[in-house]
Amino acid sequence: MSESIYVRTAVPEDADGIARVHVETWQASYAGVLPDSYLVTMRRRDHARQWHEVLSHAGQRDVALVLEARGETARPAVLGFASAGPARDPKLLYDAEVYTLYVGSDWQGQGLGRLLLGTLFRTLFDRGMEDAMLWVLAENPTRFFYQHMGGQVIARRDEHLAGSAFPALAYGWPDLEAWLRQVGM
Ligand SMILES: CC(C)(COP(=O)(O)OP(=O)(O)OC[C@H]1O[C@@H](n2cnc3c(N)ncnc32)[C@H](O)[C@@H]1OP(=O)(O)O)[C@@H](O)C(=O)NCCC(=O)NCCS
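A: This is the predicted complex of the input protein with coenzyme A.
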């Protein structure tokens, strides 16, 4: 079956598909990092409700994207998603913050994470935001993806999750225009 994969703006009806990928990637990425008791109690239903709320009340500077596959017969399926908006910590002096970026485990390693990040940066830049940053737990190997995508460590802090503190790193892209030009997006 031929399948096309594309990125589009997320709508509230995507909440359930996003929650499926969210819970699945957290459970895969954070096994052995976050307590099992926390990971096994993550409920798709709860996350779907939260995502529906977030997507229903998105501000003008918020961006939410889904990566979707459409086959000839099967219904479209959410394979990944990403969200971003105004940076939450004004002290870092960055315009935009990437809040989430996940590619479902069956779809990783095919260039889709790069496509999502690039589309997110292009959308943020087109909305007037010149630089972007994100937070990631230092123990999450995903941070090497952000490093590979040209992010530079700009800050450190402790993130409080499941009753414990985890070291986290902020990666920054200080010039989105130059980055987009370099990757041809
Ligand atoms: C990180 C993630 C977005 C990468 O997406 P992906 O589709 O697998 O990545 P791509 O195929 O687009 O990779 C693009 C490039 O990055 C590299 N890369 C991907 N993941 C990497 C990693 N973890 N470390 C180092 N490099 C990585 C690839 O090798 C590729 O390099 P190349 O094109 O120069 O050869 C995806 O693995 C993911 O969603 N992981 C789970 C996220 C997570 O941990 N969430 C928990 C909460 S933050």
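The chain has a mean pLDDT of 94. The longest helix spans residues 15-29.
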